[in-house]
C-alpha cells in the first residue's frame, strides 16, 4: 500500500475541500472531447530550401507581453479558486514555428511510416510522405551554366498535435487520417504539382507578413492571411474543426479527390463515455444473420449524407432495411449476398448511421437501459413530445421499468393506427439507446452429489421470470409490424452449428448411440443427474436435450438456439421446463450488441 | 523499428566546455507497444539528478567519473525491470532512489449514499500507512454502512469522508456498492456468466457467501439465487422463494459480492413529476435525475415514508433503471 499522494493539505474550509475532489465527467461531450480532439493541425515540408512550417491552425495567440505571463506563476500547492484552467497549459503555443518545422520534418528514411513524438504534454502524430527521392532531382547534363536550383519539396507531413493522455486508439485514428490526406496530396502533386503550388503560395504570404511585421512592429499571424488565399489551408482548417465537433471529416483536395474519415470516439458515445473502436470491431465480427440493422435516422436523412458516387448496393440496402427484417431477409429483399450485407452493415455501424439490434417481434422483451436519461428536462423529452404529440417521454419510459414484451405492451383493443404508433415509439426509443432487450440464457448445473434431489416439484417453475408471456402463435398483424419470431426462424436455413444429423423419429440404435456420445462429454455425476430426471425416460426429449447440450453453457440465448436449430420457441420452453432440475435460467441483455446501449467498462 | 525512445535532453551552458555547452540525454528504449507513462517521471528525475551532479562535481564532463555511468545504467535497467524500484549509489555521499509509480485512472465521485466495501480482507490493511481521517473512519467501513452513516458514527465531516473514501477507491482498496435493504431490487448482468466460466471467481464467491460455520454452498444454489434476482423481485421475495438454497448462504454477502464483481446490478427508482399546474414550483428532486437512495439521504426520509408519499401522488410516475 502506498502512502497518500502528495496533495494540497486539507484545510478547515469546507468550500475549498469540495473543490479538490476529482471532477466527474458530467456526461457532457466537452470533457471527453478534450482528449479525443486534436490541439492543432500542422503542415510541414522539407526540401532544398530546408525545413519549413507551411501552415498551422489554430493560429497562435500573439503574446500580449511578457509581464502578464509572470503574474500567472503560482505555487503548485495553491488552490485554483475558479477551478477552470484559463489558458490551455497543454497547448503547443510554446513551440515556435521554426522549432516545429525542425522537429516535425523528418529525414526521408522515416517516410512512409507512422511518426509519433511526445514532448511533455503534447503528442505529435503524422505520416511523413516522400514526394520524390532526393537523388533523382533531374539535372540537365548539357546545360553548362551554373544550375539554378528550383526549390523542390522532397517530403511533407500533415501532423496532428494531440493531448499526451489521448487514447492509443485515438492516436491510431489520427495517424490514419494523416496518411489519407498524404496519399491524396501525393497523388495530386504527381498529377498537377498541386502541393508545390500551394506551398509556394503559403511561403510567399509568410514572407510578406514577416516583412510587414518588421516594418510596422505589430505582430500578426501569417497564417491568418494564408487562409483565404489557399485552398489546402482551408481544407486543413476544416478537418480540424470537424474533428473537434462532429468527428466526421470530408475534404475535397484540390476540389477533386475526396478524403473521408470518421473518428469513432466522437460518433459512438453513450452517456459521456466513448465506445472503444476495438469493442466496436469485436461486436461487428459477432453479428449473426438473425440480427437486424436499425438506421439511426430516417432513410432520407441517411441517404442524403451519402456521397454522390456511393455504391448502388449501399443505397439499395438503406432503402430496404427495416427494424423488423433480419439481415438474411434483407439480403434476399435487396438482392445482395449475405456477406455483402454484413460488410455494408458493419460500415454503416462504424460510421454511426445505424446500430445492430434483434429484429422487432412480438416476443421481444425490452427494459429501460441503465444509462437512459429519464430527466424531465432533457432534450430527448422535448424531441419525443414533438414527434409524438400528446405523449411524454417519462411516462413511456416508466412502462418499461419492468421488462415487458411487445405483445404485452400493445393493447389488443387498440386501433391499428395506434398500434403502428406504438411500434414507432419503440423504434424511436431504440434509436436513442433508451431500451435494452433481454434474452433468456440457459445453463446446465446439476445439483451436488451428496444431497438428495430436493422436492423440485413443489418449487415454482424456474422458467424465465419475465412477466406472464403467453406462448402465442403468430397473430395476423398488418404488414410491416412485428411478427412472432417463430416465423422468422422457421424460414431460415440451419447454419453449420446445428446438429441436424440426429434423425427425428423413432428410437433407432443410431439415435441412441448418438445421444450417448453427446452425453459422454459430461461427467458421470452430471449424466446420472440428467438421466434421473423423469423427462429423460422419454427418448425423444432426451435426444433433444442431448442435441442442444452445447448451448447450455449460458452463452447462447433462446433466439439463437431457435435460429440455429430451426425450432419453435414453445418446443424449447417445454424442454427447459421438463429438465428444470438440472438447468438454471436467467435473463440479461446480449453482451454482443449491448455495447450500443452501455459502454464497456 | 518498433521501438520507443524516452529521454529528457539537458543543455548546460558554460564557457569551460569545448563548445560552450554540454548536452546530454539519458533515456530508455522500450517496445513500441509498451505503456510507458510511469517511466517519464523517472527520466525527468534522473535528468535533474545528473544536472545537479554535473554542476556540483562535473560528473559527466569528467572522463573518469563518466565511466561510473555504465554500471549505474545496467543496475537501473535490471532493477527497474525486476522490482520496479532501484537504488543507485553514485558515490560516498550521493544515492538516487527511483520507483515506478503506477498511473491509475481518476476515481468516480463518491456520493453520500454509496457504500464502501474492502476488496480484500480488512486484516491486510495497515492503518499506520494512512492519514488520520482514513484511520478514524476505518472501523466503520464494513460494506453495509453508507457514507452518511459513517460520517455520523465516526464523527467526521461528510466531505472529508467522501474524499478519504475516494482516495481509497483510487488505490483499489475499496470499491463502492449501493445500500442494502430487503426491499431492493436487483437484476443479473451478462457478467453473471463469469461465475460459471471463471474458476477463481467461483471459488472466491462460494467462500465469501457461505454462512460461517456451514459447509460450503453449492454452485448451483448460488447461481440459482443470483438468477432469481430479477426486476420485480425484492430480496425479501428471494428469501421466501429460495429458502432452501439460503440455508447455507448469507443473502447480504451474496448481494455484496454480486455488486462488487458486477454480476448483478441494482435497479434504482427514479420519481418524475410529470403533471403539475403552472403555478406550482418546478420539481427540485422529482425530475428523474435523483434516485430514491439519494432523495432519502438528502431529505432524511426513510424509504418507506418516501414510497408511501409518492405512491399516492397521481402526478408522479416512477421509473426503474
Walk me through this protein's architecture.
The complex is a heterodimer of chains A (601) and B (321). Chain A is of the alpha+beta class and 601 residues long. In chain A, a hairpin with a 2-residue loop joins strand 9 and strand 10. In chain A, helix 6 (194-216) runs antiparallel to helix 7. The longest helix of chain A has 25 residues, at 168-192. Chain A is elongated, with a radius of gyration of 32 Å. Chain B is α+β, with helices and mostly antiparallel strands. Chain B has helices spanning 39-57, 63-67, 69-82, 132-137, 147-154, 158-170, 194-197, 199-209, 219-228, 235-241, 251-260, 292-299, 303-311; strands at residues 3-6, 10-13, 21-24, 28-31, 85-89, 95-99, 114-118, 174-178, 185-188, 264-267, 269-273, 316-320. In chain B, the strands form six sheets. In chain B, strands 1-4 form a two-stranded antiparallel ribbon. In chain B, a hairpin with a 5-residue loop joins strand 5 (85-89) and strand 6 (95-99). The radius of gyration of chain B is 29 Å and the shape is elongated. The mean pLDDT of chain B is 89. The interface between A and B is large, with 55 and 57 residues.
